[in-house]
Design a protein that fits this description.
Blueprint: H1 2-15, H2 27-48, H3 56-70, H4 76-94, H5 104-118, H6 123-141, H7 144-147, H8 149-222, H9 229-255, H10 273-285, E1 291-294, H11 306-326, E2 332-338, E3 342-350, H12 366-376, E4 380-386, E5 389-397
Parallel strand pairs: 1-2
Antiparallel strand pairs: 2-3, 3-5, 4-5
Helix pairs in contact: 2-3, 3-4, 3-5, 4-5, 4-6, 5-6, 5-8, 8-9, 8-12, 10-11, 11-12
Organism: Actinomyces slackii
EC number: 2.7.13.3
Keywords: Kinase, Membrane, Transferase, Transmembrane, Transmembrane helix, Two-component regulatory system
Length: 399
């Protein structure tokens, strides 16, 4: 099954006219290649007509070589194989006889290699094709390249024209490959930008809406006979629906395969970590859970720049918010340590293995966003879960 699945990709690769995404051949390019192949073939046939070796196999080999050059612009890899094969067939048909002029089969692989270079194919395939064809020509002619002046002239002509073609191809390849590299960097930037937008929306809008749902539910459960309980329940239901739709959109953006350019969204500064921790502490206290914190003042170190501090507050705020959503009765801790070289943080809380997570309260994107931020800063994130304990440990270099 896997081998069968790879076949379409292999066929597509062989038929691809280019490896570049910033440049593709147009119809006029194909027509120009066809016109050049026709002229080269007619010139080669005209030069060989007076020769004594004009048998059918010899002429058919020459015409197939012209066909290989004709399809060079459409399928360079297929054309390269065809030209290389006809070169060896041409050498077998030629024997010790010298052609009346330069041979198209001999120059064909050099032309193919030049097109491979300009179309972004690997240099290994291009120059490998030249070396194989050159080796075949030398072996096919044996010592006649030296002893036979006509063969020596043909060999020298092929080397000269082929080398010029390769030099021109390299000059054309350089700017195209630079443009290709720039396009790939742009795609990577757009992808990172899209993922950053997902993280920003999750860490701001979704978080605040989730907190609103949780507070409303707590208020409704604390005062079931209050006059506005019905309206509060209806509002909670609407917010839950909005949060669920937003989470679905964020998942689609996070899993999107193609890189769609998105404008950078201005993101507001995160709430202070102290505010988030205090809010989480009150939420947990309402469920009989005590949150212990230590080392939060490490974020105020002069070694931590404003940009890095904002990212750290985002990450630690997300870990703290996760506690408020998932912690079960038991000890909960948030510890931060800073040794001057790196900052490490640990978030740990008790979980109830028998309770399923509320799909509105949890999208699964929070820790993904934290991991993305940590890795972008050159740090590491370790998540471990036991039947009754959930622990996250992150480490980020600060120098």
């Amino acid at each position: 099954m896997a081998r069968a699945a790879r076949l379409p990709g292999l066929v597509t690769g062989l038929l691809a006219p280019t490896r570049l995404t910033v440049w593709t051949p147009r119809l006029r390019t194909h027509l120009l290649c066809l016109a050049c192949a026709t002229l080269l073939t007619l010139a080669a046939v005209a030069a060989l007509v007076p020769d004594r070796r004009t048998d059918a196999f010899y002429m058919v080999t020459l015409l197939i070589s012209g066909l290989g050059v004709a399809v060079l612009s459409v399928a360079p890899l297929i054309s390269s194989g065809l030209c290389l094969g006809t070169l060896y067939a041409f050498l077998l048909a030629l024997g010790d006889a010298a052609p009346a002029g330069p041979s198209l089969p001999a120059i064909g692989p050099w032309l193919c290699a030049s097109v491979l270079l300009t179309r972004g194919f690997s240099r290994l395939s291009a120059y490998g094709l030249v070396l194989i064809s050159l080796g075949g020509s030398v072996i096919g002619h044996h010592s006649n390249v030296v002893s036979n002046s006509a063969l020596a002239t043909d060999f020298t002509y092929t080397m000269l024209v082929g080398t010029i073609c390769l030099i021109v191809a390299e000059l054309m390849r350089q700017p195209r490959m630079e443009a290709e590299a720039a396009a790939r960097r742009h795609e990577a930037d757009m992808r990172n930008q899209r993922l950053l937008i997902v993280s920003e929306l999750h860490d701001t809008v979704v978080r605040d809406l989730t907190q609103a749902v949780m507070r409303a539910e707590q208020a409704r459960l604390a005062q079931p006979d209050a006059p506005l309980v019905g309206e509060l329940g209806a509002m909670t239901s609407s917010v839950r629906t909005a949060v669920d739709q937003l989470r679905s959109s964020l998942r689609s953006m996070n899993d999107m395969a193609d890189q769609v350019p998105l404008d950078v969204l201005a993101s507001s500064a995160p709430r202070s970590l102290t505010e988030v921790v205090d809010e989480t502490r009150r939420t947990l206290a309402a469920r009989g859970i005590s949150l212990e914190t230590a080392g939060l003042e490490a974020l105020e170190s002069a070694r931590i720049g404003p940009g890095l501090r904002q990212q750290l507050v985002r990450m630690l705020g997300e870990l703290t918010t996760n506690m408020a959503k998932h912690a079960a009765p038991g000890p909960a801790r948030l510890v931060v340590e800073h040794d001057g070289m790196s900052l490490e943080a640990m978030s740990s809380n008790t979980v109830d293995a028998g309770t399923e997570a509320d799909p509105v309260a949890s999208s699964g994107l929070g820790l993904v966003g934290v991991r993305r931020r940590v890795e972008a800063l050159g740090g590491t994130l370790n998540v471990s879960r036991t039947p009754d304990r959930f622990t996250v440990v992150l480490s980020v270099p600060v120098v």
